[in-house]
């Protein structure tokens, strides 16, 4: 069984407009998925709403994986997310992910924490 990778999930969710949002959610996130960020936990429906809102604003972007580890059902990853938005702004954010997998290899839970980084900083 293969396990989901957050970089691939973010690529499908944010940067592939031809990929239906619910198809990406079904491919990478279990039905009982929860997402914790900024002290708030979202269920899968709330996460889908957030992802749809973000997707509507993103023009282009990329994910650069810095570290990634899987041990059984446990997942950890660190990446830099670079996005250009429809309003002309761009954001560069380093994010650390800790999560768990469902039995089928999709994400069951992800907790994330991150901070903005200078776009000129080398990784």
Question: What is the helix/strand order?
Answer: HHEEHEEEE
Strand order of the largest sheet: 2-1-6-5-4-3
Tally of DSSP β-strands: 6
- Report low-confidence residues grouped into runs of 5 or more: none
How much is the radius of gyration in Å? 14 Å
Portion of residues in beta strands equals: over 45%
Q: Mean of residue pLDDT?
A: 95
Share of residues in helices: 25-40%
Shape: globular
Number of H/I helices: 3
Cα(first) to Cα(last) distance is: 32 Å
Major sheet, described briefly?
Answer: 6 strands, mixed
Q: What structural category arises from helix and sheet content?
A: alpha+beta
Defining traits:
123 residues, alpha+beta, globular, single chain, six-stranded mixed sheet
How does this model look, in words?
With 123 residues, the protein is an alpha+beta fold. It contains three helices and six strands. The protein has helices spanning 6-14, 21-28, 44-57; strands spanning 29-37, 40-43, 58-71, 74-85, 90-101, 107-116. The protein has a six-stranded mixed β-sheet with strand order 2-1-6-5-4-3. Strand 4 and strand 5 form a beta hairpin. Helix 1 packs antiparallel against helix 2. The protein is globular.
